[in-house]
């Protein structure tokens, strides 16, 4: 089970453009004739809320997240928010659109989670989800390798990041009998990153947080240095000095 990271909105938003593009791509494909209630489940700092408000101008748009730090950013932008554990969240009334961008992969038990989310939709409702499909990529895999080595190994013995998501066919088998329509697809984005060890900085905004948060302050620099050294051969600078990070994401669009 994933640890519960202490989210840093500034670190997460350091790559806000790259992280927002999948949300924009998903929002553009949502089809609903006139939703009244739209919920961004796991909204984080709220950077997708303006996209949802623009896409559905007549709807009440609400951001839901467990992190008070992240919600403070969303609220400051003028959006309605609610603090709740997204694993157990329930709306006061059925929702027309449940949207979730890069949040549900942190939760285990998708076999029960996704049918439950569908049950929270109003008639003709839509569940729109995007999750990273990166468990075997070096940026994720090497976190565990480095965590098992060095003086921090004992401190990180029981620490993990987001669990692997299910196989695409498993989501199809889970959702197809419950859906009026179902679209599943993958997109691999190639992010052009700049600066010193930029893939480390990317990971610090998301998947690396549980490891870093679990370490004593004195161990954090050594762990981050070891992680950076492990990543460099996997993500070498291009001829222009930038680092390319291929990032694969899984999308699902389900209507009931």
UniProtKB/TrEMBL annotation:
Gene3D superfamilies: S-adenosyl-L-methionine-dependent methyltransferases, Vaccinia Virus protein VP39. InterPro entries: SAM-dependent_MTases_sf, Trans_acon_MeTrfase_C. This is Methyltransferase domain-containing protein. GO terms for molecular function: methyltransferase activity. It comes from the Bacteria. Keywords: Methyltransferase, Transferase. The lineage of its organism: Bacteria, Pseudomonadati, Pseudomonadota, Alphaproteobacteria, Acetobacterales. It comes from Pseudoroseomonas ludipueritiae. One of its GO terms (biological process) is methylation. The keyword Transferase applies. Signal peptide: none annotated.
